[in-house]
Design brief:
25% strand; 20 strands; mainly beta; single chain; 3-stranded antiparallel sheet; 8-stranded mixed sheet; globular
Length: 336
């Protein structure tokens, strides 16, 4: 099978610049097949700056990672990495929302200027794989059901050339951990509601920085049984191919439905809410605990015009899994 016929990688997820459109010489269907391979080019050095301006944390970058990547294009991804023009302003003093909200495709940004993407734009339908919604069956980038061309950093490339993470950014973690190794609490970036994002290791007691370091467990579990058959669903066993294969079981792990928790961190010794990029589903959180900045809201969220078009499936996409509450969540102080 030709490389281009296996490609997907968020087709149509962002508007294509003219130079990228010129490279995609074959027609594209909704499933992302038929794209010509983009040509890999020599890239400039990564650039990123994080400043405080008017009460906002401002992250600007060219979106290029500061670590080695896999080869792009590849057999699951026809796109090549290109420099971007990222600029995000997130609240310096984030506020909790009354209810969690579904994160659009872009959840946050790493401290190296690479985006964390929460979901994909590809869905199952009775007519075949489609982009942009139409059902609750969203293909998960880390689920293995679709060849997204994910590299060793759990990242791949969109048609715009945007390199982005869908899971643990292993190269970034290696750079940040140094000789101490990855089993420590590492600040990885900032969610678009302003709360910090950490790696999977943290304190066993969320409020005790002297407690043992452990890998935090998510509270999502695979559903039991089988999916509904066509036309109501794709059929088969709940195996992680789709985000909807999972359900949130409150208190079954260390983290809440937003894949975060309250506690102290090296950067916030008095405590904060923080998100976790985990090694298990949901990997990158799918829900924001706080309120995105007004500027992000006005432009349609982080997936709006300055960050690429809004994922049209975001409005239809349900929360990952069906929530089943069993017992109070652990690790949170009363009143937080």
């Amino acid at each position: 099978m030709a490389l281009c016929s296996m490609a997907s990688a968020h087709p149509g997820h962002e508007e294509l610049p003219a130079e990228t459109e010129a490279e995609l010489t074959q027609p594209q269907n909704q499933g992302g097949q038929g794209r010509a391979l983009m040509e890999a080019i020599e890239l400039p050095e990564p650039e990123v700056s994080i400043t405080i301006e008017d009460g906002m944390r401002v992250i600007r970058s060219n979106g290029l990672p500061d670590h080695e990547t896999g080869a792009f294009p590849n057999s699951g991804n026809p796109n090549a990495i290109r420099p971007q023009s990222h600029e995000y302003k997130v609240p310096l003093l984030p506020r909790l929302a009354d209810e969690p909200t579904i994160a659009r495709s872009e959840f946050g940004i790493a401290i190296n200027g690479v985006i964390f993407d929460a979901g994909t734009g590809e869905f199952w339908s009775a007519e075949g794989r489609v982009f942009g919604g139409g059902s609750e069956w969203n293909y998960d980038a880390m689920g293995g059901g679709v060849p997204f061309g994910i590299d060793e950093n759990n990242a791949h490339v969109q048609p715009t050339g945007k390199y982005h993470y869908h899971g643990l950014p292993t190269g970034l973690i290696e750079n940040l951990s140094g000789d101490a190794g990855p089993e420590q609490m590492i600040l990885l970036g900032w969610a678009f509601d302003g709360f910090p994002i950490y790696g999977p290791y943290s304190y066993a007691d969320a409020w005790d920085a002297d407690s043992q370091i452990k890998e935090l467990d998510t509270s999502y579990r695979l559903k039991k049984g089988k999916r509904p058959e066509t036309p109501d669903g794709p059929g088969g066993t709940y195996d992680g191919t789709f985000a909807y294969d999972f359900e949130y079981v409150e208190g079954s792990g260390d983290l809440d439905e937003c894949n975060g928790r309250f506690g102290v961190t090296p950067e916030f010794p008095m405590g904060t809410y923080y998100y976790v990029i985990s090694g298990a589903f949901p990997n990158v959180p799918r829900l924001w605990k706080g309120e995105p900045s007004e500027a992000l809201a006005r432009r349609g969220g982080p997936g709006g015009p300055q960050g690429g078009q809004e994922d049209p499936g975001a409005r239809e996409r349900p929360r990952p899994g069906q929530q089943r509450r069993t017992r109070p969540n652990r690790g949170q102080r009363p009143g937080n």
